[in-house]
Amino acid sequence: MDKVILVKIESHKDLLHFRTSEADIKPEDCVIIQSITGEELGKVVKHFGETFNCTKGIPAIPEILRKADNRDIENFSKKEREERRAHEYCQNRIKDREIPIKLVRVTFFTTEKKAIFYFTSEGRIDFRDLVKDLARKFRMRIEMRQIGIRDEAKMIGGVGICGRQLCCKTFLNNLEPITLQMAKKQNLNLNPVKISGMCGRLMCCLSYEEDEGGRIVIEDQDERVGYDEEEDLAEDKK
Known about the structure:
Elements: E1 2-9, E2 15-20, E3 30-35, E4 38-52, E5 66-67, H1 70-97, E6 102-108, E7 114-120, H2 128-138, E8 141-146, H3 149-156, H4 167-170, H5 180-185, H6 192-195, E9 224-227, E10 230-233
Parallel strand pairs: 7-8
Antiparallel strand pairs: 1-2, 1-4, 3-4, 3-5, 6-7, 9-10
C-alpha cells in the first residue's frame, strides 16, 4: 500500500499524481520521476496521506523513482540552462533564415543524445536546413515537432478568465473536442471573447456540464441548488 502525492514537474510545471512508499516524503521535497524523455525533477506539492492500492481495470499511478539529492538538483539545473541556450540559439537561426514558425519549448533527453524542439506554424514548413544547424551545434539527434495552439497553451500555462490556472495546464491530460453546441445548450452568451480560452479556441470547461450521454446537467433559472451544504439561486448568466 503506497501513499499518493501531487508533484509539480519543474521543467514544464505540470501537476501530476504519483505514488510512493517512502514515509518521509513531504511537501516541498524534491523527487525524481520517470518521463518519456528520461528522469525528471519534481517538487511535492501535496501529500494526500491516503493509502493506495492498484485495482484491476484502473490505470496504475506511476511511482516516483527516488527522493532527489543535491547532485540530482544540480544536474537538472544544468539541463535547464542548456535548454535555455538551445532555445535562444534556435530562435536566432529561425530569425536569420526567416522561417515562419514560433518556437515554444526545447526539451533535452537525459537517456540519450536527443532534443525535441516544439513549434507552432500555420502550414507545412521546410526546416531541413534549420535541423542541420541545430545538429551541427549540439551534436545530437534533433526532432522538430509541430504542435497545435491548444498544446501550446498547455505547455506555457496561464490564468483563465475565471481567475484560476488553465485547466489544460493543471489537470486535463487529454484535450477533448469542444463544440459551439455545448455553449448553446447552456444558454451562454455566444460572444467569442466570452467563451474562448487563452489559446483562442473554445474553453475546455464548456464540456464540464455534460454527462456521459452528452446531455447538459444544468439547473433552471431561479431553481434552488445545493453547494457545500448551502443553498443559492441559479442565476441567468447571459
